[in-house]
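ok so for the tutorial part 2 we go from a plain amino acid sequence to predicted structure tokens. step 1 is just haveing the sequence, like this:
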Amino acid sequence: MFGFILAFALLPDLNSRALVLVLWTLQIGKSSVVRLRDDLAHWVLVRQLPFSRKQLLLMNLGLTYLLQTAISLAGLLAAAVLFAAPVSSWVLLLPAIVAVISLFSGFDVIRHSRSSLLLNGNVPQISAVGIILGMICAAIPILLATFIPGPVGLLYAVASGILLAMLAYSMAVQSFSNIDNG
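step 2 — the prediction. this is what the tokens look like for a chain of 182 residues:
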């Protein structure tokens, strides 16, 4: 993650950055659902815990989100210090983008989970739909920041990232209730 963001900050054109963002999104998506999948593998025990669906989701994705954000911000800081790359707007965008990718990845794993499968120990992986959904929703704030110049574009980009993260969070929490329906 560090290397992807360091390379992203140094690349001059949008096409090169898009390729690095795709690879970075794949890495974020796959690593963000590891704890969630581990807990779902023990579904019989997890559903008996006195935690709400919201708390379970935050516990499973929260620490990984903080770590991924810190590593990615360190990559931006390294690019700024070592190569004098302009990264100030990306520092504001990055936390929301990581949240969007992580939450949509979690949503994808949860929406494929059914209690009958989880009781057998079959925990779904993140699917291509989840990865593509994360990429598209991460691209929206990036494109807004790129094509709307100045602080207005940055404000729209950060706001859209936060709104998309909130949407992904509510979808993931809602899909927890569907686990026992299948």
